[in-house]
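Give me structure tokens for this 70-residue protein.
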Amino acid sequence: MSKFFAIAALVGATAVAGCTQGINPTDTDRALIGAGVGATIASVSGENAIKGAAIGGAAGALCNDVRLCQ
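Here you go.
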């Protein structure tokens, strides 16, 4: 897995998870959104979608813990 893919998945998941601020999302909501974004980025870039979903899900679930999507 390339560094570019990992960074793109993290940034994309964090950005999309941050769009849910108006609905007071839970960690699960952000993780599901992040997993979708990660899988999509992986699929488009020709990488493994499962790995992309795992990276995106983790980024989405943890983005509020590091104060990126509050």
